[in-house]
């Protein structure tokens, strides 16, 4: 379904399509270099400037290879069609040949509208299936891009749609940033809590660094006994239903749900054993299935050690630093048993966990809001681009209020 109320025109009639500079040995070794964007820098509706490369571009070519604010960048390869607008984030910026630069031919074009249309077309509507050349690496050539039929509604409607979708995108960014700030706060809090405690005590130097004088240093093998999980159940599904009510835990939390379980406990320490999340720790409870890419410590050996506190310290200590690099990342029981944990009184352990839990709730809140906004954006993108709804039908005032509340916190 597409919006048949709009006029449709080839993209090449709306934009001048420019080619970027090809990287070469001469460009790599030249003395005077210019920063340039790759496909990896162009995300959907976002330019990522965290890592920007440079190359030498001959003076006679440079003017034609520079970006201007309002240029639309479209990926030729990788995730073909992925697009974002360059807003002049840096004074001088060029672009590589695997990006197309689209510059509006007249004032009746809002480039960000076409970012959103391309996102809907390539990720939801499937109307450009087969647009990429089927070579060794699928790519979207200049000629194919120019021939794509795209809508050309009146400029005010382009701007209204772009503004509505951009408000949701900004709300998503707000919650992303807030979650990142809260995560940084947690890391800072952990450093203070696990080295200074809450009682204002003098510190002592230990094998794991400075800790309060009254804290004991206890080897992990004296705190818990680790066991490997089981092969994951064969009825694993992504989402729970009446038939699959029990979470299946892997190296970094819930990886699915099953109608089967083999552990039932008030609290279980789970540690990622192998793969990307080896060394990651989390605490589970109730009826669960723990897969064989994780270790778990249901058996507790020290009554003075609070399980949530031990899990929090292992998260801070980052067992991932000690993974064995043999084929794939691996953390073993023996590697964990070699290390020790600083142990304050049970009361202080619980107080430390309460502080970290409060920060975790803040992080989780922002992640859940982000997930809701992601779904809202996808739904709006589809409905606005197909004409199922109009911008006039929307009330996005709650997004502005949410942003004001976040800024006030």
Automatic annotation (TrEMBL):
It comes from the Bacteria. Residues 4-176, 212-373 form the Type I restriction modification DNA specificity domain. Gene3D superfamilies: Bipartite methylase S protein, DNA methylase specificity domains. The keyword Transmembrane helix does not apply. One of its GO terms (molecular function) is endonuclease activity. InterPro entries: Restrct_endonuc_typeI_TRD, Restrct_endonuc_typeI_TRD_sf, Type-I_RS_S_subunit. Keywords: DNA-binding, Endonuclease, Hydrolase, Nuclease, Restriction system. Belongs to the type-I restriction system S methylase family. This is Restriction endonuclease S subunit. It comes from Chelatococcus sambhunathii.
């Amino acid at each position: 379904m597409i919006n048949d109320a709009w006029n449709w025109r080839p993209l090449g009639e709306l934009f001048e399509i420019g080619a970027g500079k090809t990287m070469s040995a001469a460009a790599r070794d030249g003395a005077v270099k210019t920063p340039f964007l790759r496909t990896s820098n162009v995300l959907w509706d976002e330019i990522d400037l965290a890592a920007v490369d440079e190359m030498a571009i001959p003076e006679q070519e440079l003017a034609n290879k520079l970006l201007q604010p309002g240029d639309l960048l479209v990926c030729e390869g990788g995730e073909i069609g992925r697009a974002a607008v360059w807003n002049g984030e840096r004074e001088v910026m060029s672009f590589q040949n695997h990006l197309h630069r689209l510059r509006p031919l007249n004032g009746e074009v809002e480039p960000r509208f076409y970012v959103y249309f391309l996102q809907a077309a390539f990720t939801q509507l499937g109307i450009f299936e087969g647009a990429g050349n089927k070579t060794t690496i699928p790519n979207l050539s200049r000629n194919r891009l120019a021939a794509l039929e795209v809508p050309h509604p009146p400029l005010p409607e382009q701007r209204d749609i772009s503004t509505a979708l951009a408000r949701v995108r900004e709300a998503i960014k707000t919650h992303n940033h807030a979650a990142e700030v809260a995560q940084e706060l947690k890391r800072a809090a952990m450093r203070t809590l696990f080295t200074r405690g809450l009682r204002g005590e003098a510190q002592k130097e230990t094998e794991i660094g400075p800790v309060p004088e009254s804290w004991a240093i206890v080897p992990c093998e004296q705190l818990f006994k680790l066991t490997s999980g089981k092969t994951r159940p064969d009825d694993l599904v992504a989402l729970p239903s009446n038939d699959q009510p029990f979470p299946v835990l892997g190296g970094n939390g819930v990886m699915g749900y099953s109608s089967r379980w083999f552990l039932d406990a008030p609290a279980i320490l789970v540690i990622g054993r192998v793969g990307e999340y080896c060394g990651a720790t989390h605490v589970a409870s109730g009826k669960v299935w723990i897969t064989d890419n994780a270790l778990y410590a249901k058996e507790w050996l020290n009554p003075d050690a609070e399980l949530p506190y031990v899990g929090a310290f292992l998260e801070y200590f980052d067992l991932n630093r000690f993974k064995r690099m043999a084929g794939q990342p691996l953390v073993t029981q023996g590697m964990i048993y070699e290390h020790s944990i600083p142990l304050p009184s049970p009361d202080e352990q619980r107080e430390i966990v309460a502080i970290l839990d409060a920060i975790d709730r803040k992080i989780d809140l922002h992640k859940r809001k982000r997930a809701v906004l992601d779904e809202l954006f996808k739904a709006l993108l589809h409905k606005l681009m197909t004409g199922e709804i109009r911008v006039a039908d929307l009330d996005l005032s709650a997004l502005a209020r949410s942003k004001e509340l976040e800024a006030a916190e």
